[in-house]
Design brief:
- It is a single chain.
- The protein is mainly alpha-helical.
- The protein folds into two domains: 218 residues, Rossmann fold; 79 residues, Orthogonal Bundle (Tyrosyl-Transfer RNA Synthetase).
- 55% of the residues lie in helices and 7% in strands.
- It contains 14 helices and five strands.
- Helix 4 packs across helix 8 and helix 4 packs parallel to helix 14.
- The protein is elongated and about 80 Å long.
- It binds iron/sulfur cluster.
- The site of iron/sulfur cluster has 14 residues, from helix 11, helix 12 and helix 13.
Length: 335
């Protein structure tokens, strides 16, 4: 029996290189070894976008096209839409009694995100909603609704898994149940920097390379990427370690990395040619994704069938599991 991996992603935009190298590439590698469930977390996306449902709806399709384009195989993974499984919302309500507000506010992930919101909105956090503070509870429901055993996460998300484990332990002890505590599957921490050198690549930062970007867009973006600002003339020696072009060469041009580094340091390589080489390599890297995406864009019926069968499978699983949970809680009236 393969172990079950449960993972999710919020449909708030297209996937960029940060998502790919940080998360999704790992999912592609895991799909043969594990029984993978991938949740398109539209309800969770609404915690930040409840006043913009159009954005979420549009991005459910966009995100799924991206996921299929990178090589996730519908025959190996179960892709489902969170809002179509009401059992998750039901379980979230039951779990909400098992977590104190103080504990949620102490969760380091929640704490960081609230601090960011305060910095953005500057109103001492008064715009933070109940739904937002409670999203770790909803995540515990996401995981346990499908008996998720292994959860692929970055180090920054470990507190969320710990929160789920606490909820599971409390549930088991109160209701004399034997729910499995999920474990984190941590890989190497690969946060990808933005074109401007920012530590994080992100849509709101305007520094991302998207998997869906066409050749012209890639050309423009790479031509404007941050290089070593001390290099003025083409034949000035430079430091590749402060250059974002070299940073992306490391991702998609590994075979020629030694030469790029040596020539940059010696001054025998100009930035324009270096960028052109990266543009070619980036397009070579993205071409297989573009082709797969095109196939699915032209066959959207196939995509809807993938949603439908994944969501049906997840729904059956969730409804079986919630029956056991309600039985343990003695709220299985007339069944
Ligand atoms: Fe960056 Fe290449 Fe210019 Fe060196 S030569 S600073 S690696 S763009």
């Amino acid at each position: 029996m393969k172990k079950r991996v449960l993972t999710g992603i919020r449909p708030t935009g297209n996937l960029h290189l940060g998502h790919y190298f940080g998360t999704v590439q790992n999912w592609v590698n895991l799909q043969d070894e594990y029984d993978m469930y991938i949740e398109i977390a539209d309800v969770q996306a609404l915690t930040d976008n409840f006043d913009n449902p159009e954005k979420i709806r549009k991005n459910v399709n966009e995100l799924t096209l991206d996921l299929l384009s990178v090589g996730l195989e519908p025959s190996k993974v179960t892709i489902f839409i969170q809002s179509m499984i009401p059992e998750i919302a039901e379980l979230t309500i039951y779990y909400s009694n098992l977590v104190t507000m103080a504990r949620l506010y102490r969760n380091p992930t929640v704490k960081t995100e609230i601090a960011q919101k305060k910095a953005i909105f500057g109103n001492n956090g008064e715009s933070v909603t109940y739904g937002f503070v409670g999203y770790p509870v909803s995540q515990a429901a996401d995981i346990t609704c499908f008996k998720g055993e292994c959860i692929p996460v970055g180090d920054d998300q470990l507190p969320l898994i710990e929160q789920t484990r606490e909820i599971v332990r409390k549930f088991n002890s109160i209701y004399n149940f034997n729910m499995t505590e999920p474990n984190a599957l941590t890989g190497k921490n690969s946060r990808i920097k933005g074109l401007d050198g920012n530590e994080k690549m992100g849509k709101s930062l305007g520094n991302a390379i998207y998997l869906v970007d066409d050749e012209n867009t890639i050309n423009k973006k790479i031509m404007s990427a941050l290089t070593d600002t001390k290099k003025i003339k083409a034949n000035d020696p430079a430091n590749p370690e402060v250059c974002m072009v070299y940073y992306y060469h490391k991702l998609v041009n590994k075979d020629n990395l030694g030469t790029v580094c040596k020539e940059c340091k010696s001054g025998s390589r100009g930035c324009v040619n270096c960028k052109k080489e990266l543009i070619n390599k980036m397009n070579e890297f993205l071409n297989p994704f573009r082709e797969k995406r095109k196939y699915y864009e032209n066959n959207m019926n196939e995509v809807y069938k993938i949603f439908q069968s994944g969501t049906n499978k997840a729904k059956n699983e969730a409804s079986e599991n919630i029956k056991e949970i309600k039985h343990a809680m003695k709220i299985d009236y007339y069944e």
